[in-house]
Amino acid sequence: MNKIEAIDVNFFYGKFHALKDINMQIEERTVVAFIGPSGCGKSTFLRLFNRMNDLIPDTHLHGQILIDNQDIYQKGVAVDELRKSVGMVFQRPNPFPKSIFENVAYGLRVNGVKDESFIRQRVEETLKGAALWDEVKDKLKQSAFALSGGQQQRLCIARAMAISPSILLMDEPASALDPISTAKVEELIRQLKKDYTVIIVTHNMQQAARVSDKTAYFYLGEMIEYGETKRIFTNPEKESTQRYITGRFG
Amino acid sequence: MRKPFERIIERLFACSGYITSVVIILIVVFLFREAFGLFKSPAVEEGYTIALNKNNKVSEDQFHAQTLKLVFDSEITNWSKLGGKDEEILLFRLDDITNYYSEDELGSDLENVPVCINRLVDSMPGIIAFIPKLYVASNFKGRLIEDVAITPADFLAGKEWYPTSTPSAQFGLLPLITGTLWVSLFAILFALPFGLAVSIYMAEIAPMKIRNIMKPMIELLAGIPSVVYGFFGLVVIVPFIQKIFHLPVGESGLAGSLVLAIMALPTIITVSEDAIRNCPRSMREASLALGASHWQTINRVVLPHSFSGITSAIVLGIGRAIGETMAVLMVTGNAAVIPTSLLEPLRTIPATIAAELGEAPAGGAHYQALFMLGVVLFFITLTINLAVERITKQQKS
Predict the structure, then answer these.
(1) Structure confidence at residue A250 (pLDDT)
(2) Candidates B211, B285, B290, B391, partner chain A, best to mutate (most A CBs within 10 A)
(3) H-state helical runs in chain A
């Protein structure tokens, strides 16, 4: 069953045509990687799924984006509700200026959860899910800024998971991390597949190959190729894809 | 050729740094030196002295500025209050001499005055006389209270600021410092909610176009000379307050607070708006991506993140309010009394310095007292600055 469907998506920043006629289906509980050179539109496309681009003035979208067969750009869609079911992890770790505990609890609190014992339980679960619990269980009250970059990023993943979204969007989640932290985050992404539909934007092709089931290659606002990761990396149909993944891109 | 040139430039820059630091230190040293002379100045007016009957055993420590004032205002009427015998206090000023002696006895050129005073003080056990030193006879039989200096307690705990009072000028800090804190406190109470609201509106809610018009306008407010604010306050706010509250005079703490609030607004708005805008976009996005509404994001993420910036905005505002002179001087009515309500006239420390320095003879007690006020002001602002630094540091760690 398709979790996400993009139909004839065109996106504009002012007059700039950033995404051109993109059609894509993403199945439930898979990891999809978006790859492509900088400025190709992959992050822009990712940010359409939780309507993050709404925050940028003077942008507009033609076409449809369906999540669970609902057009999320239809009039009357509550954006905050949508964002509860579509979590997002950003390129740089961006914890709030709060304690570790409150960072994870934030999503629950803003959504009106008052039951403290439930919040405590959920924080523990998600921190365990993000493989961070053992490292922080004794310092939940400390500021999140005291954590290392890799820990902060896993905290941000835990934060996104705490409100139980069904989709997780990850915008280059490991680009600011060292190799060990990256390995931990990648391992986590493979785990997440069991419960979530994960879309990950990455510059690192090995990473895409390691974690994803399907890969989409973007170039200059167009989706050049989309298919099984193994096939994209071993036997791409398009020459442009071939050149990019072998690093002969120029 | 380039190296020596660069070195000269570097030296010049270093010199500027040293000169600035030295000038600042010199100013502070000057301030303190002038101020601390106050505690060596006599509590009794220059050229005068206090004389008692020789059998009066009240300790010399009792005769400091505040008690002298109370005695000569007839608020203390019995020596027992000052630890002496149970005896009525008899006040004697030079003018009173005609009550005791006829003009003939005093002599046509008043040449017998010292003798008369000597006799009078010797014969009246309860007397306290405030007389010019000139008229103290060489064989004076009474007890002279000399070398009584103004004490720190007179200054810090004095409830009256009355520099022209005789026999002892009153340099009490309390009415002035309470006046200063009172207007500043209310100025901030008025300016803070309003300023914060405006800065949140400009940083978070207003469309770019409106913000681009508003921000320069508010910054323009900061460039208006304070005397213009004072004038505005005097002509508009003061009569308005007088009318609304049916007061005999509109000059009041409230007028001062309002003018100061208007003056502190641009500082508060621009500094806190910058702090709010400095909150990284990634943090806002993180909050919105978790399903938080715009308002929740402002309230729970943006404002806590800009807490230290907003704090410094508040403190800069307070600093502006406490140090402001001209505008306050014009609208507060300049009554040096401890304020009990916002609708009464009061007087602040800077306004006192500005108003009185011109009429205080250099080097005199009054002049030194004004410098002491400067020292107090210096410490207030220093404390505020240190507090801010502390808060911002805590926030960062």
Answers:
(1) 45
(2) B290
(3) 42-46, 79-85, 100-110, 116-129, 133-136, 149-162, 179-192, 205-211, 229-234, 239-245
